[in-house]
Amino acid sequence: MPSAAPDAADVQRFTAALQRLTGRDAPGRLGVAVSGGPDSMALLLLADAAFPGMVEAATVDHGLRADGAAEAETVGRWCADHGLRHATLRPERPITGNLQSAARTARYALLEEWRVARGLDWLLTAHHADDQLETMLMRLNRGSGVGGMAGVRGRSGVVLRPLLDWRKAELAALADGAGMPVAIDPSNADPRFDRAAMRARLGDVDWLDPVAATRSAAALAEAEEALDWLSDRIAAGHLAASGAGWVLTDTDYPREVQRRLVLRMVALADPAASTPRGDTLDHVVATLRAGGQASLGDWLLRGGARWTIAPAPPRRMVGDRAGGEAEGTDGAQ
């Protein structure tokens, strides 16, 4: 049975958000990621009402829950009743390891493959203001910087999140009012997962405003973009190849800009190297500011008027004159 249409005001609110994110009055063809929960079902309802004939949906069945297949079928039936094309996507290999992280990686890979195959311009996900607040608090608890505290971005490449200024309760009411079938994923309340534990702690907190937090996250995202722009401009003018490494010829910048310049040096020297973060990166920057030298994996960075990165010299092996074992210079002497 077809669901009731959403209010015109809600559709206009959604349309305006999507137009802001894309910079287009007519965003193009939209792919909607739909788990079957109230948030994503409400997203699908709004997208179809705002841009009829331009929407397709996909549900990822990770194979982690017995109900996953049935929930995908429910979404598929709703789409069929409303003339929408729907696909159920499944990973080729079982999800293992850190389940939430691995499932997220597999999900976005499957959705992007589907988006490209279907010729869709954008992929929409149902992240909302309550999700944003949870993300910010989790990252605050980990000591994140500007980029981390910017939280979930409204736009990441072709991925759009037009519901970041909507509350979870609003979306649930929208889906309920339209008579949509919704599924409840029990893992969303499983305290073994960090986000679920944070969600439970926020359940009785009424003095934190998720929508205000979303505005703060957006401001931090703009600050992050500005810092990256500045760092790119500096790198373009003052970071050059030097032998097997790189040299930064102008280093007199605020510490946060210096952090970003060091990251660019490491990435240019070794694109496959892991990105230094947190205390490791802070230690390197402090050492270079003091004119010292610091090692990062196979690379040696030196401070001073100019900062350089070059392959670290091989460990000097000291042989025992009497024929004993050789040992590295950093071993017990």
CATH homology-level superfamily of the largest domain: HUPs
Sequence stretches where pLDDT stays below 50 over 5 or more residues: 320-333
CATH class of the largest domain: Alpha Beta
- Give me the strand/helix succession: HEHEHEHEHHEEHHHEEHHEEEEE
Radius of gyration: 25 Å
Q: Main sheet, how many strands, which sense, barrel?
A: 6 strands, mixed
What is the number of helices? Answer: 11
- The assigned structural class equals alpha/beta
Mean pLDDT: 91
CATH T-level topology of the largest domain: Rossmann fold
Distance between the termini: 80 Å
Beta fraction of the residues?
A: 5-15%
Helix content: 40-55%
How would you explain this protein's 3D organization?
With 333 residues, the protein is α/β, with parallel strands linked by helices. The protein folds into two domains: 8-219, HUPs (Rossmann fold, 3-Layer(aba) Sandwich), CATH 3.40.50.620; 243-333, no CATH class. Helices cover 46% and strands 14% of the residues. It is built from eleven helices and 13 strands. It has helices spanning 8-22, 38-50, 68-81, 99-118, 129-141, 146-149, 168-177, 194-202, 210-238, 255-269, 278-289; strands at residues 30-33, 55-60, 85-89, 122-124, 155-156, 159-160, 239-242, 245-248, 293-296, 299-302, 307-311, 317-318, 327-328. It has a six-stranded mixed beta sheet with strand order 3-2-1-4-6-5, sandwiched between helices. The termini are far apart. The relative contact order is 0.10. Mean pLDDT is 91; it is low at 320-333.
